Amino acid sequence: MRVSIMKGMNERMVAVVKSIYAYEEKYGAMNYHSKKSSNGIAWKPGDAGVSRKDLAYLLNRGIVEEIASGVYHIAPKLRGALAGELEMLDAELEVKFSADKAIEYALHGNMDARALLDLLKFQKKWSAMYDDIGWKLSKAKEIIINAGADLTLLNRLREAGLVYQVADDEYLLREFPEELLSAYLEGSFSTQDAVFEYRNIVMPMKQQFLSFISSLSSEDIDEMLAQVRDVWDIVNYTKHVMGSLYMDALLPVLQQYGMADVPVFSTEGRKITQTGFSLAYFGEPGTGKTFTTDDFLRGNEKNGIPAHGIIGRLRYGEGMTPKKFIAILEAYQNYPVDWIIPEFNDFFRYRGMVEKLKLVMEQREVSDETKKEVIKPYRVRSFFIVNYNTRSSGGRWNVTIEDPNFNAIEDRMICKVFVNSEEREKAIYENMVRRVSGDIEWYLSKYLRMHITYAYHVFHENPSRVVLSTSDFVDFGNKVREIRRKLNVNVSNRVILKGIQIAGSAALVGGVREPGEIRISSRDLELALEFIREELNTRAKKK
What we know:
This protein is an alpha/beta fold. It has 22 helices and 16 strands.
C-alpha cells in the first residue's frame, strides 16, 4: 500500500495524527461533542492536545474537518485509509530507525549524554507551554554548551536522525525513553570507546554476576561449601588435573580469590597489604601459559575444558591496542574485573605505555591525551593475568620487551617463568594423554567457579580482614630473604609482600564460611613460600 494521505508529512505531525486517531477510537460516540458530529466522534483541540499550528496544518491538508465552531474530527472519507497508513508507517519506522543505535552513534561521552537528556527535557516542557511546532537551533546550541558538550554533537544528532527539521528554522528532537541514556550517564566516560564498553560488555557482565548471586539457594551454598572446604581441596584438585604442574593452575585460582582485595593486618593492627594481586606468566611458546590461565579460567569447549573462573568478572583482552585498552578501562571504574591479556608484549610497542600500565596496576589515577581525544583521570580496582613470550637458551631466559622500565611492571606483579625444559615438555604431554584417555575428571570445576564468585560477593557484603601475626611475618620474610641470598637473585623486598598476598588469598578460601577476621595459617604460608621459591629460582636464571 502506497502512503498518499500523509505523503511528505514530518514525523512529529504523523505522531499528532496518531494521537488524534487514538483519541477518537477511545471516546467515540460517548464524546460530549457527538451531537455535532455526523459519525458520533468529535473533539476540541484542547481535548486531543492539538496545537493551533498543528490544527491549521491538518485542516489545510483535509485530514481534519471542522464540523462546528471549535469542534473537529478526522474526515470520515479518509478515516479507513488513514488507519492503514498509520499502521504501515509504524512498521517502516521500526525498520528504518533505532533510537538505541542512533544514540550510540551520536554520543561520544558523558557530557554528550547529559546534553541530550537536557534537550529531551527541554522539548517536553516546550511542547506543554507553546503551540509552536519546534524550536530553533540556537536554543539547542545553548543547551549543549551549558551541559559542557561540544557543538559537534548537534551535527551528530542530525546525522543520526535524532534531530530533524519540521519547518523553516524549526527543529524537533525525536523523543525516546530516557532509560536509553542511563548507560551513558552511569559513569563519567570520556570517550565513545568507554561508553560502548560499558553498555555492551560491563552491563551484561554485571547482570550475569548479579543473576548468579540472586539465584543461589541455601541448598546450593551448603553443597558448594561442602565441596570446597578450604584451599587444600583446590590443591588436591589441581594436582589431579595437572599432576606435577599443579602450581601452574593453582596460582591463577588463588589470584581469583584475592580479587576480593581484603586488607591484611598484623595482630598489632598495622596494615600490611591487600590480598589482590596481578599475575604474569612468561616463557617460551608451548610451555602451558595459555592453558593454565585462559583455558582453565574461561574454559575451552573445543578441548573439553570447563570454566573455573569467577562468573561475570572475567574479561578477555585479546586483539586490542594498549591505547584502546586505556580508553575502555575507564568503563570499569565501579566494576572491578580480572583481565586476561595474552601476548602482553604487544602492549609495549607503543611509546609511553609502561608508565600508564604501572599506574593502572598500582590502582592510581591514569589519563591519556591525543590529538583526537582526552581521557580524563580515572582509577580502577581491576586486576590482571597476563602472558608474554621470552627468549631462552642454555637454560637461561630473557624478556622480549626492550623497554628498560619494564622491570617496574614485573615488580608490581607476581611472576612465574615457564622454562621449556625436557621435564616440563614431558609433563605437558602426559597431561594431554590423561585428558584424551579420560583419566582427568573435572569434578570440582562447577563448585570451584561458584565458590570463587560467591566468595567475592561475601567479602564485599561483609567487611573482613585477614590477620597475620608479626612473628609469622618476620619468619616468612627471613625465609624469603634467605632463598634470595642463596640464589643471588636481584629482586626487591616487595617479593615478601607478594608471598603474603598469596597466603592471604589462600586463607580466604576457608574464610568465606565465617567472614570477619580470617587468620593466615602456617600451612597457608608454606604454600605461599613454594610459589615464591619457584619465582626466585626462575628469576635467578634470567640473563
